[in-house]
């Protein structure tokens, strides 16, 4: 059930990544991206045009010309988790080997899904007595498909 009122609890967001990108359309293996990750940060990475016009009194007008939805995840390395093993198995891979699909189900019922690239894989790192700290960015390629669930 979609959340309609009250404070948002971040753990209500659900992320899934296709861990079998080599499979055909409709044959995806959707693995939940959650275990070990403690935070996420979605950004639009906007490209802005800032233009001064004669009627602006010397100040500029901004137009968002484009962007890319990216989501950064941080947390701890959890071996044996399908999503984490898939992501961190791409650490030294490049090109299309980093491409797959992602779904983001938001607490209000909005689902964003589409092709993506796994980028900026970091870690595990940290103190000798601590959990291995990790980070990764998921970059949606193009405009994600937006659907809603009741």
Automatic annotation (TrEMBL):
It comes from the Bacteria. This is Capsid protein. It comes from Bacillus pumilus (Bacillus mesentericus). NCBIfam families: tube_lmo2291.
């Amino acid at each position: 059930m979609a959340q309609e009122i009250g404070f948002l609890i971040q753990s209500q967001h659900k992320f899934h990544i296709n861990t079998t990108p080599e499979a055909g359309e409709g044959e995806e293996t959707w693995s939940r991206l959650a275990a070990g990750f403690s935070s996420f940060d979605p950004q639009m990475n906007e490209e802005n045009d800032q233009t001064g016009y004669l009627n602006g009194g010397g100040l500029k007008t901004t137009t968002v010309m484009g962007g890319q939805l990216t989501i950064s995840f941080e947390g701890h390395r959890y071996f044996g988790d399908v999503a984490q093993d898939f992501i961190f198995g791409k650490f030294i891979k490049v090109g299309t080997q980093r491409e797959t699909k992602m779904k983001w189900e938001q607490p209000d019922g909005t689902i964003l899904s589409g092709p993506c690239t796994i980028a900026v894989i970091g870690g595990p790192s940290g103190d000798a007595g601590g959990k291995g700290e990790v980070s990764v960015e998921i970059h949606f390629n193009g405009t994600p498909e937006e659907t809603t669930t009741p």
